[in-house]
Amino acid sequence: METVIAIQGEVIARPVSMINHDLNTGEIEIMVQDLQVLNESRPVPLTVKDTCDAMDETRLKYRYLDLRRPSMQKNMLLRHRTAQCVRQFFTDQQFVEIETPFLMKSTPEGARDYLVPSRIHKGKFYALPQSPQLYKQILMVAGYDRYFQIVKCFRDEDLRADRQPEFTQIDVEMSFVEEDEVIHIMEQLMAYIFKEIRDISLETPFPRFTYSEIMTKYGSDRPDLRFDLQITDITDSAGKTDFRVFKETAADGGKIRGICLKGQGRLSRKQVDTLTDQVKDFGARGLVVIQVTEEGICSPIAKFLSESDIQDITQAFNAGIHDNIFIVADQENVCCDALSFLRHYLAKHYQLYDADRFVPFWVTDFPLLEWDPDEDRYVAMHHPFTSPKPEDVPLMDTHPDKIRARSYDLVVNGSEIAGGSIRIHQSGLQSRVLELLGIDADKAKRKFGFLIEALDYGAPPHGGIAFGFDRLVMMLANEESIREVIAFPKTTSAISLMDGCPSEVSSHQLKELGIKLNDNNQ
Q1: Tens of pLDDT, residues 200-251
Q2: Do the beta carbons of residue 408 and residue 179 sit within 8 Å?
Q3: Are residues 317 and 232 in contact, defined by beta-carbon separation less than 8 angstroms?
Q4: Domain residue spans in the chain?
Q5: According to the model, what pLDDT value does residue 362 have?
Q6: Distance between CA atoms of 260 and 290, rounded to whole angstroms?
Q7: Which residues contact 340 (CB under 8 A, 6 or more apart)?
Q8: pLDDT at residue number 109
Q9: Does position 268 have pLDDT exceeding 90, yes or no?
Q10: Do the first three CATH levels of 1-43 and 227-349 match, i.e. the same topology?
Q11: Residue 204: which of 195, 213, 216 has the closest Cα?
Q12: Contact 172, 466 (CB under 8 A)
């Protein structure tokens, strides 16, 4: 198997009984007259066909064999076609593709940088770009009004199924635009890609939700909207019942929220216990389950509820016979996290959505800042160069936490596909935002001085967006991990099993770079 051969012979028609209609060449065969073995293969460690049961470690170690499998080749070709669609679309829209550097200044304000030591300037380091953000803004200052790039980015962060240390973005920036113009063109891009690659017609314009609205309804800023299961807030009414947990939660300023699962009938005690344990992983103290049956409600808290209480709760959730209500009483962030998980878990478990359906929508009006208790300061919800809404600028001196950003995220089927914003184009406002982030003038000059200075040379208003290209291709391919659409991915511990990187380097190389390892790294 997998030995490379060369054959010569006569192409003949197959007998009718031997025609294979599943192959393009299924009606012919070759009567071999000469055969040469060009390269004999060793026994293969994995089967080179679609149904491969090899472990992920084996697939990654022998990636050159894994990539021979028809399903992987199909994914790589789909990725190629998607990239061609992106380039064709933006070229037609008068965008210019410009490459930005891979060796840049380290400006850590988010994930950790990958650092590259300089041999010529010992003790100094380049950083691999987490994003071309600063450079594409500089290109707007330079007068290139419509820029795009399909570009590699690098972030030294904890990994998961849809995250890699090196990943690919569709990077876009435009001058003299408002939010609506950016959103409109990106909807056209998405519609073009889905039609060309999957022959799926996406209806435009996509729905839009504010951050506050989406969090209240679904508990997440990237929910899956292929199914309903909206969150209902019953704090006002449930807080007045005799159930102590509800009463104390409402009195402490918490929230009482839940979702209603329609028409699935009674759950077993084991099912309820499993769901309760899972929401506790998100910080919830417990899960209240109310099952509506023909005899009435079935719930451990039924004895604490009056007939009026029961009626108020079932009406709030529009619950009928054979429905199940799941309620979490806790602080707002815990309710959001627990119920967001629960609605996705139930939808998958009960198959409440069509896997081949795509529901894109926009989330807007994010908070500009969020408080980081570990660092004891505000951090940027998106990045430090996102513009606040003009009407919220006065809040910078009084209520920074209430400032809304001119940002927008594109979400499809529970995955954030793209995120962008209108940028700050005035140096004074940029400096004020950096101050709110705890970055004083000296630090700002060291980290971002070249951008702040550039904004003083006639910088136009501008905005843009970045798509996660790997995630987009993963979705188009109906895969659950971006490793299935990347030719040479890393493991979840950022290791390449095929070539063994990262690896040690020689003492001579370290000496050239002026680097000495401490005892713990020997």
Answers
A1: 999 999 999 999 999 999 999 999 999 999 999 999 999 999 999 999 999 9
A2: yes
A3: yes
A4: 1-43, 227-349, 367-404+426-459
A5: 98
A6: 9
A7: 218, 219, 220, 223
A8: 60
A9: no
A10: no
A11: 195
A12: yes
What whole-number distance in Å separates Cα of residue 325 and Cα of residue 348? 17
Q: Is the peptide bond before 205 cis (omega within 30 degrees of 0)?
A: yes
The arrangement of secondary structure in 227-349, i.e. its CATH architecture, is 2-Layer Sandwich (3.30)
> Which residue type sits at 483?
R
In whole angstroms, how far apart are CA 500 and each of 99, 120, 491?
29, 28, 11
Q: Which ranges in 199-306 belong to alpha helices (H)?
A: 211-218, 235-238, 244-251, 269-280
In whole angstroms, what is the distance from residue 515 CA to residue 121 CA?
12
DSSP letters spanning 286-324: --EEEEEETTEEE-TTGGG--HHHHHHHHHHTT--TT-E
Confidence class for position 102, pLDDT limits 50, 70, 90:
very high
Q: What tokens does 77 get?
A: 């070709």
Nearest to 331, CA basis, from 249, 254, 253: 254
Backbone angles phi, psi at 266, to 5 degrees: -75, 145
Chain Cα centroid distance, residue 176: 28
CATH no., domain 1-43: 2.40.50.140
Q: Dihedral (C-alpha) 351, 200, 467, 484: value to the nearest 10 degrees?
A: 60
CA distance 297 to 290: 6
End-to-end CA distance of the chain: give it in Å, rounded. 43
Tokens of 231: 């969150």
CA angle 32–37–43, rounded 5-degree value: 115
3-state helix, strand, coil in the chain (%, to 5): 35, 25, 40
Task: Supply φ then ψ for residue 181, to 5 degrees.
Answer: -70, -40
What's the one-letter identity of residue 227? F
> Buried b / exposed e across 226-260, counting CB within 10 Å, b at 16+?
bbebbbbbbbebbbebebebbbebbeeebbbbbbb
pLDDT at position 266: 84
pLDDT at 108 over 70: no
The percentage of residues in the chain with a pLDDT greater than 70, rounded to a whole number, is 98
User: What is residue 513's three-state secondary structure?
Assistant: helix
Pair 359, 411: CB distance under 8 Å? no
The CA distances from residue 72 to 51, 75, 159, 388, 497, in Å, are 11, 5, 22, 44, 18
Sheet containing strand 255-261, edge to edge, reads 232-233, 255-261, 324-330, 288-293, 296-298
